[in-house]
Amino acid sequence: LKEALKLNSEDIEKLKEDLKIKIKNSGVGAYIEQIENKEISSSGNGVPIAIKNNINVKNWELDCSSNILKGYISPFNATVVEKLQSAGLSPFGLTNMDEFAMGSSTESSSYGKTLNPIDNTRIPGGSSGGSAAAVAAGIAIAALGTDTGGSIRQPAAYCGVVGMKPTYGRVSRYGIAAYSSSLDQCGPITQNVEDAAILYDIIAGYDEKDSTSANIPYTKITPNLNSNKKFTIAVIDNFVAQASNEIQTAFNKAVELLKEQGHKIVHTNMIDTNKIISTYYIISSAEASANLARFDGVRYGARKGDGNLKDMYVDTKTEGFGYEVKKRVMVGSFVLSSGYYDAYYIKAQKVRSLIKAEFDKIFENSDLILSPVAPTTAPKFGSYSNALEMYLADIYTIGVNLSGLPAISLPVAKDKEGLPIGLQLIANSYEEQTLFDGALSME
Ligand code: GLN
Asked: What sequence ranges are listed for the domain Amidase (predicted)?
């Protein structure tokens, strides 16, 4: 990205033509246009940035990889797209994702699956699997993804690229299709840490169009990047113990390297990860059921049923939503319903506060946390025997979203099969400078 930003408009045109040819031949299905055999969507003549299929680009079809939104043409730009354009960059192609960003494998897309470019028999991760696969396959200069419970960091780790989730409120959610509004954040997926900082600097900042946007002064990261700072880095021992042996080995090596560089490592423990999983899936499903209620056949995309109002609602949702989305809407409606609200939803909100308090405590005497991103490297297609198994692979990422913290996933090693291993650094809220500086020293 850094290099592409130096190109003149003629060279950028050439770059885009090259990318289009490479995309056609790549075979990973990172872009929905590629899967559909269509011309790559492109507007403007700036450096091309791949856009996850849940971010509004004016006059482009936006369907969040769901049948329910087929044919919906976006009338406006998301703030992040406006910001790209003001900085001279341009949206280029829509990347595949799990339907409405619900999933960890990019398999629940209405377009079908995206392959992991490192090993085509494996999932690219998700839900921003298309964005991560595109960057890893060299068919995107950089991409935007969204992270509600790990959807930027986990596919970045599985594909061997860098993925960053900003502090909740740092990047505007305006114009990004909501999955779980108190958790969603948009962020960069790039080839290296500096590119991530560059793209983050472009999209971050207060936006009055998003009521949860943080009106907190913000200094650009990139001009102040410094890989020589020394930090106190916390390791959560009971988290690390749940990762595969290979990930633990890579983790321990990274810790040794950080020590050699002069960083101080401190050891700690945290709340049982199963509690984090339950809390996340209650809150995110509850918010999803409220957010997705608007897709009823009246206002957006597809309309089904030819009879009365009820049939229209029922048929539109029955035919439009896929299995995973329906399940979450039902779970969400259940935990919000009278009689169960206190037992599930309110309880989950209380546990969410406890999780946040535990992170706060760790940050009282450390600058960063080092953690695995996922318990294993990219699994093979079909290796999860049920959805719960896939949910359990989110143990390391979702606590960060529940606490609103910024985090960055970095490729640090390869396992013996050549699959990338990613680790993440987590910083305190609004400490993105510390996050990027720490990440740079690990690169
Ligand atoms: N895997 C998580 C889920 O299915 C996270 C998804 C995301 O971050 N969008 O909800």
From this structure: 45-435
- Three-state SS at 19: helix
Cβ–Cβ contacts within 10 Å for residue 265, how many?
15
Distance (angstroms) between ligand 1 centre and the Cα of 53 equals: 15
CA distances from 219 to 62, 88, 177, 204, 433 (A): 33, 20, 28, 10, 9
CA distance 129 to 151: 8
- Residue nearest atom 10 of ligand 1, based on CA coordinates: 102
Which residues are CB-neighbours of 260 under 8 A, at least 6 positions away?
A: none
CA contacts within 13 A on the Cβ side of 181: 12
Q: pLDDT digit string (tens) for 166-192?
A: 999 999 999 999 999 999 999 999 999
Q: Both tokens of residue 175?
A: 């114009």
What pLDDT is recorded for position 307?
A: 78
CA 176 to centroid of chain Cα atoms: 12
ipTM here? 0.98
212 falls within a domain: yes
Cβ-in-10-Å burial (0-12, 13-18, 19+) of 433 comes to: middle
Residue 96 token pair = 């595949």
Pocket of ligand 1 (CB under 6 A): 101-104, 127, 147-151, 179, 284, 394
pLDDT at 93: 98
pTM of the shown model: 0.98
**Does the pLDDT of residue 211 top 90, yes or no?**
yes
Instruction: Report the length, in residues, of the chain.
Output: 443
Annotated catalytic residues are 52, 127, 151
Range of the domain at 93: 4-224
Q: Which CATH number do you get for residue 179?
A: 3.90.1300.10
Q: Is residue 100 in a domain? A: yes
Number of domains making up the chain: 1
Domain contains 181: yes
* Paired sense of beta strands 185-190 and 264-268, if any: unpaired
Q: How many angstroms is it from 168 CA to the middle of ligand 1?
A: 15
